[in-house]
Hints:
disordered N terminus, 6-stranded parallel β-sheet, two-stranded antiparallel ribbon, alpha/beta
Amino acid sequence: MTPRWxxxxxxxxxxxxxxxxxxxFLSAASVRVRAGDGGVGAGRDVSNNAFGPGSQVFDQRxxxxxxxxxxxxxxxxLRIGRIPALASAFQPRAALRERIDATVSSExxxxxxxSGGGGVGKSQxxxxxxxxAVRGGTDLVLWAPASDVHQVIAAYAHAAALVGAPGLRxxxxxxxxxxxxxxxxxxxxxxxxxxxxxxDPAGMEEWWPESRTGGVGWALATTRLNDARLTGAxxxxxDVDVYTPExxxxxxxxxxxxxGCDHLLDEAADGLAQELGCLPLALGHAxxxxxxxxTPCAVYLDRFRxxxxxxxxLLPPEGDTEGYGRRVATGLLLSLDAAQRSxxxxxxxxxxxxxxLLDPAGHPHALWDTEAVxxxxxxxxxxxxxxxxxxxxxxxxxxxxxxxAHAVLRTLHRYGLITSDPRDELRAVRCHALTGRAxxxxxxxxxxxxxxxxxxxxxxxxxxDSDDVSPDLGVVLxxxxxxxxxxxxADLWHPLSLPVLNRAGRSLAGYHHATESIAYNExxxxxxxxxxxxxxxxxxxxxxxxxxxYREMSRHQDAIPLMERNLxxxxxxxxxxxxxxxxxxxxxxxxYRxxxxxEEADPLEERVLAGIEGLSGTSHPSIRLARVVMANCLxxxxxxxxxxxxxxxxxxxxxxxxxxxxxxxxxxxxILARYYGSADRPDDAVAMQQQVVAFHQRTDGPEHPASxxxxxxxAYWYMRAGRTDEALSLQEEILASRGVTFGPEHPFTxxxxxxxxxxxxxxxxxxxxAALLADVLAVQERVLGPEHSQTMNTRLVAHYFRLKAxxxxxxxxxxxxxxxxxx
Length: 823
């Protein structure tokens, strides 16, 4: 049954933003800045600022993996990146180009920056110069999107591989990017680089290209910013404004003539150009409407003026100091009307409303196959939401199919409202940030809370059970969740939308995301307490995740207050004997143990164990969780045989009630193997872990991350059992596999290198182990940070192996091991 989505009444949406505390959330920092009436708002420093009432800035940083590999032989000339095609009626803008050429030639600029508002044609000018460089036979022409510094780094790293830059390692994108800049500075090859849409001057500071060999290359950047840091170090700026009236009319004339629609150009053309503010982006939308609808300029101008009066109420002039937003939004709306009437009819507007709430950098096509999005489109097909008559004769809507959903994306693509590229698996559907903003301000509110609910449910449905299957997909989905949180505001805290926020938090679980997880869950707790309640289920889950991430960063003292708060709520609202209360108490006891607060842990553990015994036979999942946590506590307390007994009991119960191949049963086997190891029963640990490996390889395949992790653990137990040859063989296979799959500096690969070094040390090869751990430690300090728990553990073990290698072990070994290596 299709849900009945409510439409929102006209009014002002809640503009809840994502605060600066989210700076590590979703592998990208995201900061929203708003300026009130007549105000100026700045984000962090002057690099992130909003001028004028209603203005806002989004500052996003994203992290990308850079797989290594051998570069093919260099074949000159090289063309890197997708240079945008010139508009059908591209305007040469001779006067502006004369200023640009004069600036480049007379001032010998290290780089030229084209600065101007959105939609004034900066990228088209850059594309013109890039095409000119291609025609002139320039050896290297590179086009790099620069709205995120990491996009520039990725493009440079890719270019480094293609040109064979000295110093290329294929390990870290930043290092390869630096190698490329060094190559540019010294090469005798001619080059031309475009950095399109620079938004972070501070972040770009070290990534500007330059030539030190007589000016054989130059760079051209585009930006909406007017910031002094963009013109430092020899860079020069040229301001780009809208078309002149003559250029605007020539554009309309050329565009209509190119499509055989000269008859549409009438005496109202100049008036239309003036009404559109001579803004290239708005003129492009208007021309598309004229051509597709066969509408003369005079008729379009009348419609535009009528729509303008209505849109003035939605987008008041004082909300846009430059005067471009209203006109762009109006032109966009008229083009959207034409798309709405195209096949499949009546779906373009609701589809664009949903796209506008997501990350402008793109989201997967798979989102448009989900039931949530298809139900949303079905509901807003014409006739689905009209007011029902009392006799209820309204015809049920015809369900929208996935084929129709993808067809409407192509329609929006054809009208220039979005980019839909099926070849890009992860970011196939993209929407220009300016277009997205215009849609949100004029269209989205017509669809009420339903559009944010559908986007959230669609993202959730597209999310795999484990991010290990596709780490890059996890990055994209988290980025889209962040964008949705910024754009939907309080609407996202609807009960139907809320699960996607928790899924994003769960996506950040694991020590390699601990820093980002802390920032995200701190932000989510703050927002939950604002929109929901301090003790809402989602808030308490976020506290659990935050406490876990604190522990991963060895911040056990920070985790304890969170657990105490959750326990206090559970005990007050549910009572001590409730399963959820016992689980919360178990987690608190575990935190006490990890913080070495054994005096606090002992009585609490006894209470939990007594409570568990009193609920014997209860099948509540929280009771099973509490028992697992208590088994861990007993293990930490030096009572391994008791943890083994509890683990065996839990496994037998899980096999009986859930089945031998249930995921929880398999996890319990892996946990029990660890208990066996703590109880000095390595042979039993090996036998149990072999069952875990067999399950994952049978169900997931040998290359699946879960299988690789299980095999790595089996190698550890082999070593503990004295089966060293088998252990080393498995570890070498894992190390080679992870290096290829994830890259040499990924946390999974570092795990494998650490385990292999430990095995070498146990075999007496202390020098080899110490050398390998020194390399691992250097990477961890750079990638994870010096205070990360894994980094600190590696530092301690490396210190131990260095002492062993130097025959420095003695009676004061304990003191030596607890002394930081630097001391």
